[in-house]
User: What shape does this take?
Amino acid sequence: MAIWLIPLLGFLVGALVVAGGYAAVRYLPEYMVRRRIEARMRDTAAVDTGPANESELIKAPSDFSVPVVDALLSRSKLAPSLGSIIGQAGLRTSGTAFVLLTLVCGAAAGATFGLLTTSPWGLAVGAVVGLATPPMVLLMKRGARLRRFEEQFPEALDLLSRAIRAGHALTTALGMVAEEAVDPIGPEFRKTYDEQNYGLPLRDALENLAVRVPLLDVRFFVTAVLIQRETGGNLSEILDNLAHVVRERFKILRQVRVHTAHGRYTGYVLMALPAFLIVALWFINPEHIGLLFTERMGQTMLIAAVVLQIFGYLWIKRIVKIEV
Assistant: This one.
């Protein structure tokens, strides 16, 4: 077998392992839940069991559970933050499933890099890359969803204002936004409407919205509504003014992103260029580039290069990030 087929086969095996692990974590829990529901519907008759507990009224994101991972997450202070970030990313999965997916990616990437480099350093670097990939993807999805929410938020405020001006109550207007708006505005307002509709005070429901969607504009909206309910005033006019402020701020933010696009894409290119060159040189002259992975000096240089690349990317990101 040709020598260049070995890294290719290693990459394919690693990709298949990652894809299989993701499919198992993502789809197997839903399949098992459907099987349990179908079995219960077949084998049990519907009986009135009285009012449900409060915990049973809360819809869980996923029934997938591993006792060991659940116990570790319950003791960790990061568990609530992880659940919040998963919810803000719009994913219907549990913290347990995400942790297992991260571990599978770390193991698969570590094994792949270990096969390619035949070095413990390669195994370690691959494991770190694999473990870091799911959290990075999660944060990217969260950021994209929050940006979509911010873009759609002025239209939601306009709809609320028109509904209130037409004589509807605020709670009814929230339901109208939940019905008319698309994701992510619609589902988030649906949760707020359902919470207050099932007995939660409107103040608590709005504060939960501000927690689920950690945006400055949403905090402005919640604060304005709560103050208006205590002091009075024209709520539709307040919402119109808030929608105008949000639009103007988002317009400035777009201009800033345009002016900083060169710096951001420079960072992307500088991050991707070394990895592209390593892959290209591996296929052109594997013995030459293999010294980076087999020799101690090469491994030290490679680790230093990775650290400096990450530091440089974070520094560029810090420079081009302008708060509006």
The chain has three domains: 1-29+75-145, 148-243, 249-320.
